[in-house]
Amino acid sequence: MSTTPTPPALSPDTETAPGPSPRSLTVMLWLVATGFFMQTLDSTIVNTALPAMATSLGELPLRMQSVVIAYSLTMAVMIPVSGWLADKLGTRRVFFSAILVFTIGSLLCANAHTLNQLVYFRIVQGVGGAMLLPVGRLAVLRTFPAERYLPALSFVAIPGLIGPLIGPTLGGWLVKIASWHWIFLINVPVGIVGCIATFIFMPDSRNEHTGRFDLGGYLLLVVGMVAISFALDGRTEFGIQHATVLVLLILSLACFVAYGLHAVRVPAPIFPLELFKIHTFSVGLLGNLFARIGSGSMPYLIPLLLQISLGYSAFEAGLMMLPVAAAGMATKRLVTKLITRYSYRSVLMANTILVGLMMASFALTSTDQPLWLRVVQLAVFGGVNSMQFTAMNTLTLKDLGTGGASSGNSLFSLVQMLSMSLGVTVAGALLTTFTGIMHRVTAANSLPAFHATFLCVGIITACSSWIFAQLSPDIRTPAKKTDPSERT
Fold it and tell me: Where located (predicted)?
């Protein structure tokens, strides 16, 4: 039986005013869904291909984290501006440009000959990818009537949930049957068809009353995010001196503080500080930022561990990620019942510690570990990690209301992408530091470096449970209406 999702029913009898035909609306839904799938797929598809990329580009496999960081950090930087661009220039023009830039970036990535070139081209790809979901979601919101918005958005979200799950396996399979270049080349024909379909079927809605963009606040946030990323990764990736790292950390802190002062003074900041008066939003946002550092590092670390230290092929490493995805899907509904019974505070504190312990358990990995035990370990991690995401995300969004939904969702998306970037940054820095202590990295001696790295990210994650301890024990009701695309 086919499991392909069916778009919400579109009947011309329900239209009360002239607008796009039911056929155009259906095509638009598939367009947005495909764009979301491409964006999320490329956040994980490269993970299993990193060793193959390193061999092709003449680099060490343990120094390829910048390929992942460049994409996720660029998306974090571009998310705040995408909605404003769609309001100002129109959804069709911006969505078309997003697919075009993403496709060009993918083609450039496939033709990169050095690591630096690949990183620059991943930035181009990230610029396009960052606009696919927010602009597509905005197009759905403005085109569909209120009673059909949630079913339409749920349909759009399904491929986006599938993308990260199949990414590692698909990446490993493409490396096996062809080469790592094809993890980018597969985007090109899809992008070409998407551009044509967007030009024909995407409605061109815009907001004629769009105000001025908060450029000052945006630049402060961008400089702060980039500075902290370079500070954490620059020492190991670029050989930046300790004094420069300290300066970058101070600069990032100064920028975030300056944004707070800026947001109080200007009439329409990009992210109003009033959002942080919502206690559940503040705790959820901080929890997402710090707890996801560990979770964001695992899709990067596990395939490297399997290939470099345990001798798996790229395809085999990708297959080993399937238990993580399957267990994650199986446990998503369980967390709602647990929250209703035990409260957000109890569930998140206990589950955060459990996630940290499961990350640290990979420090016990050995070459003679039975396959069934490794599969169980990956599945248990996938299950508790998925429960963590669902609980944190519903907590963050549950009390936003309609007034803060737009800016709150954008800030939440930014924090998600930033934490993914920081997760890989921290993991790469730790792994490089520990391998440097051992002086010479081979398959025989890289395992202790991975052990120490998994232990550190596990401790970081477990310690973030303190953030959720600030919640009231009486908060038990999950969010009634949350954006399905934000539940991963």
Answer: Cell membrane
Does 192 share its domain with 252? no
Contact 196, 360 (CB under 8 A): no
Task: Domain of residue 244: give its range.
Answer: 214-269
Output the pTM of the full model: 0.83
Q: SS3 sequence, 357-368?
A: HHHHHHHHCCCC
The enclosing domain of 324 has a CATH number of: 1.20.1250.20
Mark out the alpha helices in 311-468 (DSSP H runs): 314-320, 322-331, 334-342, 344-361, 371-397, 405-437, 447-463, 465-468
357 contacts 377 by C-beta, under 8 angstroms: no
Quickly list DSSP for 148-194.
HHHHHHHHHHHHHHHHHHHHHHHHHHHHHHS-TTHHHHTHHHHHHHH
Tokens for 16, please give them: 């009360």
CB 156 within 8 A of CB 136: yes
Structure tokens at 33: 């869904």
Q: How far is Cα 150 from Cα 445, in angstroms, rounded to an integer?
A: 52
Model confidence pLDDT, tens digit, residues 288-310: 999 989 988 999 999 999 999 89
Helices (H), 438-485: 447-463, 465-468
Helix, strand, coil percentages for the chain (3-state, nearest 5): 75, 0, 25
Q: For residues 75 and 79, what is the distance between their CA atoms, to the nearest angstrom?
A: 6
Measure the CA–CA gap between 156 and 137, rounded to whole angstroms: 8
Q: What backbone phi and psi angles, to 5 degrees, belong to 479?
A: -60, 135
Is the alpha carbon torsion for 376, 378, 382, 385 positive or negative? Answer: positive
What are the tens digits of pLDDT across the range 94-143? 889 999 999 999 999 999 999 999 999 999 999 998 888 778 777 777 77
276 and 248 within one domain: no
292 burial type by CB count under 10 A (0-12 exposed, 13-18 middle, 19+ buried) = buried
Among 205, 233, 260, identify where a domain stops: 205
User: CA-CA distance, 208 to 35, in Å (whole number)?
Assistant: 26
Tokens of residue 387, six digits: 């429960």
Digit-coded pLDDT (tens) for 378-399: 999 999 998 998 888 888 877 7
